[in-house]
Every structure is written in structure tokens, then in C-alpha cells.
UniProtKB/TrEMBL annotation:
Belongs to the TRAFAC class myosin-kinesin ATPase superfamily. Kinesin family. The lineage of its organism: Eukaryota, Fungi, Dikarya, Basidiomycota, Pucciniomycotina. Residues 28-47, 66-77, 635-647 have a biased composition (Low complexity). It comes from Rhodotorula diobovata. GO terms for biological process: microtubule-based movement. This is Kinesin-like protein. GO terms for molecular function: ATP binding; microtubule binding; microtubule motor activity. Residues 16-27, 56-65 have a biased composition (Pro residues).
Amino acid sequence: MDRMPFVPVRKHKPSSTPPTSPGPCFPRSPALAGAAGGSFLSPLGSSTAHNRLPPAADPFAPPATSPALLSPPTAAPRIRAKLTPSAAPRRKALPGAERADVPGHHSPVKVRPAASSPMLGAPNGAGAPAGGFGAFPKVTSASLAQAQHEWGVDAAATGMQSLQLSERRVVNGGKGGGRDNVLVCVRVRPPAAKLTSAAPQGVDELAWQVDERSGKLQQHAGGPEYTFDSIVTASRNEAVYAEAGQDLVLAAMEGFDAVIFAYGQTASGKTYVLSGNEANPGIIPQAVSDIFSYIRDHPEKEFLLRASYLEIYNETLKDLLDPTAGPVKVRQDEQKRFFVHPLREEVVTTEAQVAALLRRGAENRHVGQTDFNERSSRSHSVFQMTIESRDDPSFAPAGSVFTSPPSTPRRPGAIQTPNTPRLAPGTDGVVRMSRLSLIDLAGSEQATSQMERRSEGAFINKSLLTLEKVIASLTSEAKQKPHVPYRDSKLTQILQPSLSGDARVAVIATMNPSPAAIEETKSTLKFAQRVKKVVLKAVQHEVVDDKALITKYRSHIAMLEAQLRATLAAPPGTPSQADLVADHSRQQKQADRVHDLERQVEEFRSLFLTSQNIEKRRLSALPPRPVSPVKMTRSSSPSGSDSTLQERLLDLEDELSVVREERDSLSDRVAQLEAERLAAAETSTDARLAELTKENQELLVIARNADVEGELKRQERKFERTLERYKVYQEGLEATLEQERKRVAQFERFILQHLASQTDLLAGRRRSSAAHLPTSASVTGFAPLLAESPDLDAISPDFVELDDLQFSQAGRETIKRSGSRLLL
Ligand SMILES: Nc1ncnc2c1ncn2[C@@H]1O[C@H](COP(=O)(O)OP(=O)(O)OP(=O)(O)O)[C@@H](O)[C@H]1O
């Protein structure tokens, strides 16, 4: 399957109605599905089928395959713009999306598709209107029976008797005169009691009487009757899409700008109808699905699609695909048309890609809880798809052989496949460029209990009020056309190019049928009534210069191919023994260059969508189909043995499919090799990176070590110097100490001598006093005497005459510090 589950933009409680089938990504309406083998036939190509009123019992029963689908697609109407000199891009659109609009109310490019077109539906028959929006016939939607079944509402009891018809007539089918009005479809939400399982299962009182057949609506209590293009009460979103979406999507595919917006009070179902949920896909997923189906069904064209997604919150624009980018602004070009810049646009090639993009954008949207809606959109969101297309000159109608010569010479031996470039440089045709805008407006609300919600509400209401004023001015019947205040809000600035005339516009007015919401519903209906009067003159946009992205990409591919040719044509290396290595590396470089150019060409080509590659993408998701024995037999039988042209064609088709398979397997091989090459490159890059990191770390360590060493050395030197200083100091101290020691010893000696002499003297005196010994007795033997004398301790230093002693200053101080009484 090429469809991935579609995740809705907003979270909704699953519809009370079980889906008719499990919800694939962007599931098609069962009404849109083809009959054969579940395969899908373009809903756009089979609009006839949609117009058939489905059986009452099963309003979404698959229609029979339209034979028109099998007709050669060349029968499609070819529409060419007759561009005047002033048809150069009149408005500067989004970056890379310049467009040439055709001025004038009677535009030569405003073409009504032929009713007999196989793409556009059946010949004008019952219910197939002509002209205006009706040029693309309307389809029926769900019946009252379904609505009643879904809502569990007794129509008689609720005053909705008029809904009891199983078929609805096409409302407001045709408008002539080259002018269209805005298409307005009212979508009536189920009553609250049916939305929440928590709510009592009683029947909500309904304030409105709805007649889906005539598109009329009136309050039970009386009051004005409102008439719209269509009214849908069914829960299934397919019904709304059929009424107000599909025609516009088709128009967009044909080169018309188209805008669909949902308007209504908060919680009335705007997001539900636009985005829906997996079980009940909304307008956006259905539109995307149809866009891809249209491409599948138009092999004569090639397409380039891109998408953008932005929101307006509190009058500030935010690019939902690139929310961190700088401020997004609305600017005006020289034609005074507003455009948004800068805005990220992404080229998309599959539905799954678009679904992913929508999911990404939705995650960045502002939502909050209000008194009325658990997840209320607090912003207006604008999802846009830009569609570029052009005729494929190399297209050969179904059944014919692929005969066009390739525009790019291939390398010898390269397999020529139908995927070779389709357009040679210089043969580019006119490009159609259009934009489909799907806008989910924030809900208007009268009052809310929360502060933040209140300020948001003020912005929301202001922009909606400005929208109303703009609509009022546009529909004014005053002779002098009033000023249209587009400028007063971002929303109206963005809508200006569409509302001012050259786009197709549909408004889905959503309403809550409860009496509690009557005032808001009335104001929604009044708005819808007014907007219906806006007259449009939609024009088909064609671009003849190279402003279209499709042309730019094609030119780029041509340039790359030229480079590729030049690289391939480069003379082969002249190997010489001496220069063998250099030559080898040159050849390697050349091969890499070729590979790179081929990859680039392939990458750019893959952005283009054709019925062929879209189908290939879809099939590549399926398991490979074995070649049937019949085919093998036929392809191996000698050519010419089948004489009929039919047989020959079948053979050729088989050959073609073999070549395609071969091509596919080669592409796969290329992809595999590329992946291997990238992996190898990555591995070697990783290895080199690791090496460099290691080296770097080592260098860092070395650098740091170098530093540490330096630091250590510095410290060491410092320590050494300090040590030296200390050594000197120590030496000084030691010298001083030595000196002091000497002095002390000297002093001791002196004292001892002094004591000895005193002792001697004393002893002499004693002797002389005792035996009259002479006082000149020798002091020899003083020491033993000193040691032995018990009286020595009693010798008082007081006897020493300090003044007589030879002390140094230091010695004196030492003695002083010792507290000796010598100095006292
Ligand atoms: N037709 C419907 N069928 C079933 N459920 C619906 C339908 N319309 C709305 N709902 C439910 O009603 C609730 C509110 O719907 P939704 O969020 O779409 O309203 P809203 O108009 O977008 O509100 P807001 O302006 O606050 O964003 C949702 O839970 C949604 O599922």
C-alpha cells in the first residue's frame, strides 16, 4: 500500500460512526474508490461517477467504473493562455513560485472545461450543471437516513422533516456569464449529546430546521430563511468534500488558484471537517489524495508539488514547517498584492510525505482549551499546495510504443528506459501554476472565562470582523465601490489575492445546531450569506518564463546532464609507467564525478511526478510480482510470429515491463551501491574523524603537558630560588649562631675564669685567713675544684662586673633575653 496512516491535524474523539473501512492514510471516500480489485480510479477523472446519485441505502457505494477513464488521456482539454506582454509575472508569490496572471475580466484563459472531457465528468446530463462552479458537476452526499442513523435523531421530533429524502438535488449547480460566486456549504455538526459519551443520551433540542435538498435553513422560532449552495448534516466528511472540495481541487490541478476555508464558532467542527481523523478523513487528506490520483490519471503531464503550512496567531505569522525561522511577514508586490515571505515550501512526492508534513506542522500549532472546546485552534492555519504542471512532449498515448528519442545521450551500454529525461533543454512548454489553500480559521467566540483565551479571542474576533468588513465591501452594491480593508488584519491580507477575484473560493460554514449556540450560528450564517455574494473571475495561471520551479529544475537537470556528458567525453587517461598512480586517482575522481552528477540528476528527476513514477512509487511498496509464464513465453517467441498488431503491442508492452523491471532492479542496485558507498564513505569519514579526534586529544594532552612541564619548571625554578634564599639565610643564621656560640663559649670561659679567679681569691683569702697563705695561689686544678666544690653554686654572679666584660652587642642581647641578672 502506498498509504500510511493519516494522523489528523487535531485530536478528536473518534466519530461515533464506525468507519466504512479501516482508515488508511488519506483514505479515499468509498464513493471515490474504483470498483476493480479495490484499486483506486481517479475520483477526479471519474467525476461522472460522483454525480450519479448513490443508492439510498448506501450513499457511499462505489460507483461503476466510468468508461471515460479508459479513454486515451489525450482527449483531455488542452488549454493555452494567450498571454499579453503584460502577462509577465504580475505578482510575486512565494519564493520560487512566481506566477503570470492574466489581467482582464474576460480572460482568454478562463476556460470552461468541456463537459465531455473524460477528466471532468460526463456529458451534461441529469444533475450535471453547466458553467461556473457547476462546470465541474456536483456529487451527492449522504442521505438524511444516514444522518438520522448517525445522530439517532428523529427528524420529525426535531423539525428536520425535510431531510427525509434519500437523495439530494445538486444545489446551485450552474452559473453562467463567466463569473462565479463564492461557493458556500453549511456543515451542521451533530448535537452535543451525540458527541460525548459522557453526555446524557437524550436528544438535544435542535434550534434549526434544515432542508438539505434546497439548501435552506431556518430557525424553528421563525426569522429569516438562509439559502446556501449546499447543506451537509451527515457526519462523514466525504459528503462535504464532494460538495465543496473536489471541484476546487480539480480546478487547482487545472491551473486555477483555489481556496477553501472553514468558518464558524468555536467547537462547531471546522478542524473536524478540514482535517478529520483517521476514521473520517477531512477535506485536506481527501484533497491530497485526489491530487495524487489526478497525477496518476494524467500520463500526458508532469507535475511538481510543494507544500507550505503557516498559522496566524495573535496577528503574528508563524511558519509551521520552520517555526524557529525568523519572523514571517506579509509583504506587497508592485501590483499591491500581498504575499507571505519568507515561507518554507517543501517539494512533496508522496501522500505519506504530505501527511508527515501536516503532522509536523500540526505539532507546532497553538491550541488550547476553551469553555467550549477541549482542543480549540487558537490560530488561523493556512495549508497550501502549489501545483506546477506542464505537458510532457515525450508522452506517447497508451498502447503506442515509447518512441521519442532520448534527449540526453547515455553512456555506451546504458539501458534506455522510459525514465530518460522527458524534455530536452529548450523545448520546455508552458507551465501551469496554481495554489490550493486550505484554511482552518480560529473559532469566533463571544466570551470566555480565561484571561489568555480572552486576549487570543480578541485577536481572533478582530481578524474575523475584518474579514466580514472585507466581504461587506466586496459585496457592496453602492455605486462608488468602498475601500476594501484588507490591510486591517493578517488574515485578510493573506486572503486578498483570492478574494479579490481570480481564484475559486469555497467556504464551509460550520454550525452547532443547539439552541445554546443560536446567536453564534446566526452570525455564522449571516457571514456565509454575505460571502456567497462575492463574485469571482477565476483565471487559469500559466507561466511562460523560467520562473516556475518545474522549469528551473528542468534547466538545472539539463545543466547537470551537460556536465555529465562533458565529464564522460573527457579523454581517457594515458597511462604511463611513471605516472600510473596519479592517473589512477584522476580516473577515480572522474568516476566519482560521474557518479555524483548522475545521482544529482536522479535526485532532481525524482521530484517530478508523473503518472508513471507515481505508480512506480506505489508499486515499490508492494512485493515484486513474478513474471507470468504467458508473458515469458510470448517475449521469447520470435518477433513477427504474432501477426496482429494487438499481439505486437502486447509483446512490446511486455518488453517494456521487462525493461522497466530491469531498470527498477538497476535502480535498486544503484541505490544499494550508493548506500554502500555512502556507508563506506561514512565509515572512512568516521574512522578519519576518530583518528583526528584521537590526534587532537593527543595534541591537547601534549599541549597541556607542555604547559604543565613549563609550569612545573617555573615552579621548580621558583622553589629553587626560594630554597637558595633560605639556604643563604640558613647559612647566615648558622654563621650568626656559630658566632653566638663562640661568644657564649667565650663568655663561659670568661665566667669560668672569672669564677676560678674569684674562687681562687676566695680560697686564698680563706687560707690566708686560716694559714696566712699568700693570695697569689695558683689556680691550677680549678676545674676539679669547681666540680667538687659544694659551694660553687653559691657563687653569686653578682660579683661579676659586667662593665669589665667584653660582650658583643649580640651577646649582650642574648644575655638580656635569658633574663640573667648580669645585666640588671
Ligand atoms: N460533524 C461532526 N461529527 C462528529 N463530531 C464532530 C463534528 N464536528 C465537530 N465534531 C466534534 O466536535 C468537537 C469540536 O470540533 P472542532 O475542534 O473541529 O471544532 P472547531 O470549530 O475547529 O473549534 P475551534 O474553533 O475551537 O478550534 C470535536 O471533538 C469534534 O470531534
